[in-house]
Design goal:
This protein folds into 2 domains: 235 residues, Aspartate Aminotransferase, domain 2; 116 residues, Aspartate Aminotransferase, domain 1 (Alpha-Beta Complex), CATH 3.90.1150.10. It is built from 11 helices and 12 strands. It has a 7-stranded mixed beta sheet, with helices on both faces. The chain has a 3-stranded antiparallel beta sheet with strand order 10-11-12. Strands 6-7 form a two-stranded antiparallel ribbon. The mean pLDDT is 97.
Length: 368
């Protein structure tokens, strides 16, 4: 189905940068640089400069960035890591897959980690906190870092949805011991496939992730530990280098589109509007969410209702014992509206109009 308001528009995004992307990809083929090449080194430098850290290390995806960060910090079996259920499941799975125990705390109504709950679950086994910056909005990093320093804990920022967001003049990913990013195509800085990166100010952590991403090899002939195969390939890095130049203007475009949504929907009492720095996603919390989503899809607005069951209630994961009432409430209400940089303003006005029509019609029926 061709939507009047698509959730993403990859062909249009490509056309917007086509000459530069074509040249970048062609250069990789002509130079024969595909793995751990010059484009990757250049992108790592550019990303670190953008985020405001000393180092960036490209890896295969955002999940790998989180996993390798845990490995590099020495998190192991029996350790406990505090994070949230209100996230993509990878944030939790990497903790389990490394042998540690995820300790899930609730979020606040803004969908971000409730920092006041951290100290309630601390014990001698706690080794790290993974705050999740969601949909372009940042957790309270000042409080999180204060708690971490006081209790000698590592902080791994899951900034996979937070690239470009700022707090007190510092960008997401630059606060913790490590910051992790995803370059999935739907992200605000997306590759033409999977990709990810860690950023850090700690040279030892950066060097350790470099070893781990390349099978534990210190050189072509020397293997110093068991590692993995998780490199950001040179083709993706070349594309990301092009797109990174447009990131700031893409964020500004998203802010303008979000402003339209906010102005058009602010008087609807049945919805709660998001607060974000970059609008990686525009997450609307809505009464009668499923009926609204059905209405919008029928009217040609491609909305996304991704989470029907919160992570800690998913069968088979062994997380049902966590009591997270706000997370569960948010899961019942939230949906993502289209806000990609390629949208035209009239498309956003159209989507907002259809939301208003839905609630107006329901009010009329209830009043008659």
């Amino acid at each position: 189905m061709k939507y009047k308001v698509p959730f993403v528009n990859f062909p249009e995004q490509y056309r917007r940068m086509k000459p530069e992307i074509d040249q970048a990809v062609l250069s990789c083929f002509e130079g024969g640089n595909f793995i751990l090449g010059e484009d990757l080194a250049s992108f790592e430098t550019n990303l670190a400069d953008y985020v405001g850290t000393k180092y960036a290390v490209g890896v295969g995806c955002g999940t790998d960035a989180l996993f390798l960060s845990l490995r590099a910090l020495g998190i192991r079996e029996g350790d406990e890591v505090i994070t949230v259920s209100e996230t993509f499941i990878a944030t939790i799975s990497v903790v389990v897959n490394i042998g540690a125990l995820p300790i899930l705390i609730d979020v606040k109504e803004d969908m971000l980690m409730d920092v006041d709950k951290i100290e309630e679950v601390l014990n001698s086994k706690t080794k790290a906190i993974i705050p999740v910056h969601l949909a372009g909005a940042m957790c309270d990093m000042e409080k999180i870092m204060s708690t971490a320093r006081k209790n000698n804990l590592f902080v791994i920022e899951d900034a996979c949805q937070g690239l470009g967001a700022e707090q007190k003049g510092r960008k997401a990913g630059s606060f913790g011991d490590v910051g992790c990013f995803s370059f999935h195509p739907a992200k605000i800085l997306g590759a033409a496939g999977n990709g990810g990166s860690i950023v850090t100010n700690n040279e030892k952590i950066a060097d350790e992730v470099k070893l781990l991403r390349d099978a534990g090899r210190a050189s072509k002939t020397e293997i110093v530990r068991h590692g993995y195969n998780s490199t950001l390939d040179n083709l993706q890095a070349a594309i990301l280098n092009v797109k990174l130049k447009y990131l700031s203007q893409d964020i500004e475009k998203r802010k303008k589109l979000a402003e339209i949504y906010n102005n058009e929907l602010k008087d609807i009492s049945q919805v709660r509007l998001p607060n974000s720095q970059t609008y990686q996603d525009y997450i609307l919390r809505a009464e009668n969410r499923d009926k609204l989503a059905e209405h919008l899809l029928k009217e040609g607005v491609e909305v996304l209702v991704r989470e029907i069951i919160p992570n800690h209630k998913q069968p088979g994961l062994g997380l049902e014992h966590f009591n997270l009432p706000i997370t569960e409430k948010i899961t019942r209400e939230k949906m993502r509206l289209p806000i990609c940089s390629e949208l035209k303003e009239e498309q956003v006005y159209y989507a907002a109009k259809k939301i208003k029509e839905f609630y107006f019609e329901r009010s009329e029926k209830q009043g008659s």
